[in-house]
Structures are given as structure tokens and as C-alpha cells.
């Protein structure tokens, strides 16, 4: 088996996760994905940005209405929804590696359109939509690619690198905006927004050094190349037993999965091997993740904290949020309810002069911010990475691209709905919007306990077997495969008769 110090696999996953950083660099693909989320939050309160893309109030002062904030922010998420579904077609036709190249280029074009905008809100929103296409596609392809190239003992950890790079992307965007927000011209927002082109170009150039997924290569009949890639990823010779075992296991799984003909979207919801449950679980986890509340802080934190009446600079507060993210569900829920109630009962009414705030009102703002920091910290440990790990290791090869696309598309659909409606809701009910997130986290706790099985330490094929065995989620942590493709002690392949029987069950 591959050892946990496999440097090539770790470097590979780190680079791929960095690619996601550039748009969650906007919330795209790891670093891509994270960075943009953080960038747009700061831009919304920059004077030059507001002057160019806002409206002029009756007092002659430019401002960004909640409707304009939601349009500018949410168009990226609308693009990610389309891109997440679109990658399912390119990842099979052009391979995982080729698809990353295509969608990285689309993302970079979208960023260029945004950076070149002068006063057109239409242009900047179109640019964000195009960049979102790349982010959404990469958000689905990267977990797929990591899941198919990582040794099983490292797979969960490497998939978590994806979330780590997202968080680092968000944090870096806050640091950059902290340094540029005082610039008295368009450079204040063009610099942090335009830097995303650099991240995209790094991803475009680096993809040429990455191997194709061995599972995809075997699906195309390129056995020699698949063997070579497996050897590289495990840092062993091509004739090593690890390569031989992995090859036979993958070939067996592919034969069983291909017996049913061409894959359709409806097959993701079929009763075969409990695919319907696995697909819905992936979609539900992404739905709950988006309504945890953390993205409300990421997208609108600067605007939200600016109205809290605290003496801290909102850019500084966002930087603190990003910092603790780099460094639980129950803890998140507690933070949501405390922050929401403190904000509702202790904060001054909207529009109150900050110089006239009482001591208790200032303390209310400080309490809200403190628990917002704890909320984001908890998210970064639990709900942030885990749904992506589930998507990467829960589906058989036959339906994996489409199933992951559905999970990712669900993430982006609710990301769009949150970013579009959150400022309007917050404008009506203020900090009580956090009660919505509290309720969702309580629901999420129950859902995970009752519906999500443990996949730690299992190969992708063994996860398939666990679902076929209909193991109860609350008993799954202690479950072990009844029939492994290879005996754990002797490492000898199981008999051909057992394989044929298993394949026949899989095709039903």
C-alpha cells in the first residue's frame, strides 16, 4: 500500500487544490474558489467601486443598494451552477486533465472582463458569470480528479487540502484588500480582482505537469499509461505489487460498471447499488453546507460588520475571520444563535450615528463579531471540507462525473440563492438572519447521523460494496468489507468465480 508520506501525491493534490483557490480565489477551485469570495466582499464597500457601480442617493452620495449587491455577488454563483453541470460532458470527452485546462481558460477570460470594467455593472456581472463557469466546473472536476488519483489511505486528507486552499484563498484576498482599500482610485479593487488572472495562468501552465486519472485512462483502454501513472502516484516501480493490485481492482470495477451501456443522468438516481441514496446524500450535504452561514460572512461580512457599530475597521475584521479559518456542527450552531440574538437585541437601529452608540450597543457589536469568528473557525474544521470528501469517494466510476456534477451544482445553486437573497433578508430582519443558519445546522446534525455512512479507510470499490450491503449509517464506522477484491493479509486476488458473481450483482 502507499505510505502516508507519498510526496508526489501530496504535491499533486496541493497544486490541484490551488487551482480551485483562484475562483473561491472566488469560491473556484480551491484557491480560485476561495479568493473571489473574499474579494467581492471587500469590493462592495470600497469607495471607488461604489462610485462606479452603485447608485446616487437623494443626498448626492453614491451607495450600493441591496439589489445591486445581490446581482454583482450572485452572478458568479449562477455561472458556477451551469459550469458544474457542463463539466460532466467535458471530463468524459477530454479527460480530467483536459477539462481542467479548458475551464481554467474560461475562468481567466471572465476575470479579464471584470478587471477591464470601467462603469458598466452589466460588464462586471457578465465577467463574473463567465468566471463562475470555470469555478463551478473546476469545483466538480477537482474532487473527481483527486478521488481518482489519490491512494486510499491519503484520499480523505488530500481532498481536505481542497478546502484548505479555499480558506487560504479567502484569507489572502482579505490581506490584499486590507492593503489596497485606501487607494483613492480604481486600483483599490482592480488589483485584488485582477490578481485572479495570475492564479488562472498558474493553473493553466501547471496542468501540463499533471498526469491523467488512471481510472479514466483505463476506461479509454490505455493500460500502459494507466500503469505508469499509478506507479508515479505511489512512488513505486511499474512492476510493484501495489501497481498490479490497483490495476486489477480498477479493471474489475470498470468491467462491472460498463456492462449496463452508456451512462445517463437518471442512472444517478437508480436503485442499483443504492445510487439514488448516494446522489441525494451528496446533494443534501452541499445544500446544508451552503446554509451553514459562513458564506454570508464571506460575501457580505464587510457590509454586515460595518453596520455593527464596532470601532474595528471592517477590513480588519474580515482579515481576522480569514485568519482563524486557516488555523463542528454543534459549535457552529451555538455561535449562530448567540451572534443572532446579540445582534438583534443589543445593536443600535440601522442608520444610528456611530459616535452616539451606547456602551451596551458597542458591546453587542463586539459579541456578534466574536461569535462570527468562532462560527467560521468551526466551519473550516468540519462542514467546509467534509462534503467535498464525500463527493470524491462515494460513487462508482460509471456515474462518478455526473453524480459529482449534481452535488457540485447543488452547492452552487444554493450559493447563488444565498448570495442573491441574503442582503435583502438581512436588510429586513437584520442579525436574526443568523437564526436561519442555526436551524439548518441543527437539521444537518440529525441528517448526518441518520443518513451519511463512514467511508474512512475504504477504497472506492469498497464504498460501493458498503452501499450494496445496505449498512446503517450509524453502524458504518465499524463495518468491514465481507469480500474484498484482494485479501488483506495475503494480498492475493480473490477467485474468478467470486469476481463474476460480484460483477453480476453490480449490473443488476
UniProtKB/TrEMBL annotation:
Gene3D superfamilies: MFS general substrate transporter like domains. GO terms for cellular component: membrane. Residues 477-508 are annotated as: Disordered. Pfam families: Sugar_tr (PF00083). Its main location: membrane. Belongs to the major facilitator superfamily. Sugar transporter (TC 2.A.1.1) family. This is Major facilitator superfamily (MFS) profile domain-containing protein.
Amino acid at each position: 500500500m502507499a505510505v502516508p508520506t507519498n510526496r508526489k501525491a501530496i504535491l499533486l493534490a496541493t497544486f490541484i487544490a490551488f487551482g480551485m483557490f483562484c475562483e473561491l480565489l472566488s469560491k473556484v477551485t480551491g484557491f480560485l474558489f476561495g479568493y473571489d469570495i473574499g474579494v467581492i466582499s471587500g469590493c462592495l464597500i470600497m469607495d471607488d467601486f461604489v462610485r462606479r457601480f452603485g447608485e446616487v442617493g437623494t443626498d448626492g452620495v453614491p451607495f450600493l443598494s441591496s439589489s445591486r449587491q445581490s446581482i454583482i455577488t450572485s452572478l458568479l454563483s449562477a455561472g458556477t451552477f451551469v459550469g458544474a453541470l457542463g463539466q460532466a460532458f467535458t471530463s468524459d470527452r477530454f479527460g480530467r486533465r483536459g477539462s481542467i485546462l479548458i475551464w481554467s481558460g474560461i475562468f481567466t477570460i471572465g476575470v479579464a472582463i471584470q478587471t477591464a470594467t470601467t462603469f458598466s455593472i452589466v460588464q462586471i456581472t457578465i465577467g463574473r458569470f463567465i468566471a463562475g463557469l470555470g469555478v463551478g466546473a473546476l469545483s466538480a472536476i477537482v474532487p473527481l480528479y483527486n478521488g481518482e488519483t489519490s491512494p486510499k489511505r491519503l484520499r480523505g486528507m488530500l481532498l481536505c487540502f481542497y478546502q484548505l486552499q479555499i480558506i487560504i484563498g479567502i484569507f489572502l484576498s482579505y490581506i490584499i484588500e486590507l492593503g489596497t482599500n485606501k487607494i483613492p482610485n480604481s486600483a483599490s479593487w482592480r488589483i485584488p480582482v485582477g490578481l485572479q488572472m495570475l492564479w488562472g495562468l498558474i493553473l493553466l501552465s501547471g496542468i501540463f505537469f499533471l498526469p491523467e486519472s488512471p481510472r479514466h485512462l483505463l476506461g479509454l483502454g490505455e493500460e500502459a499509461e494507466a500503469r505508469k501513472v499509478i506507479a508515479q502516484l505511489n512512488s513505486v516501480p511499474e512492476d510493484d505489487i501495489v501497481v498490479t493490485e490497483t490495476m486489477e481492482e480498477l479493471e474489475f470495477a470498470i468491467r462491472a460498471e460498463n456492462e449496463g451501456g452508456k451512462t445517463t443522468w437518471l442512472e444517478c438516481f437508480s436503485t442499483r447499488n443504492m445510487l439514488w441514496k448516494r446522489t441525494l446524500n451528496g446533494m443534501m450535504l452541499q445544500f446544508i453546507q451552503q446554509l451553514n452561514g459562513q458564506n454570508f460572512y464571506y460575501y457580505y461580512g464587510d457590509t454586515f460588520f460595518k453596520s455593527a457599530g464596532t470601532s474595528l475597521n471592517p477590513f480588519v475584521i474580515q482579515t481576522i475571520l480569514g485568519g482563524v479559518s486557516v488555523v463542528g456542527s454543534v459549535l457552529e450552531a451555538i455561535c449562530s444563535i448567540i451572534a443572532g440574538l446579540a445582534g438583534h437585541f443589543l445593536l443600535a437601529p440601522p442608520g444610528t450615528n456611530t459616535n452616539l452608540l451606547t456602551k451596551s450597543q458597542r458591546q453587542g457589536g463586539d459579541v456578534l463579531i466574536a461569535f462570527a469568528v468562532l462560527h467560521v473557525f468551526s466551519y473550516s474544521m468540519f462542514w467546509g471540507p467534509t462534503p467535498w470528501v464525500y463527493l470524491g469517494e462515494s460513487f462508482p466510476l460509471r456515474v462518478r462525473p455526473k453524480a459529482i456534477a449534481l452535488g457540485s451544482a447543488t452547492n452552487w445553486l444554493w450559493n447563488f440563492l444565498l448570495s442573491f437573497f441574503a442582503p435583502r433578508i438581512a436588510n429586513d430582519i437584520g442579525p436574526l438572519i443568523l437564526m436561519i443558519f442555526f436551524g439548518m445546522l441543527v437539521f444537518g446534525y440529525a441528517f448526518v447521523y441518520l443518513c451519511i455512512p463512514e467511508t474512512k479507510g475504504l477504497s472506492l470499490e469498497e464504498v460501493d460494496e458498503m452501499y450494496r450491503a445496505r449498512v446503517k449509517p450509524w453502524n458504518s464506522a465499524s463495518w468491514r468489507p465481507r469480500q474484498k477484491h484482494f485479501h488483506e493479509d495475503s494480498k492475493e486476488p480473490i477467485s474468478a468465480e467470486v469476481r463474476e458473481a460480484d460483477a453480476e450483482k453490480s449490473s443488476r
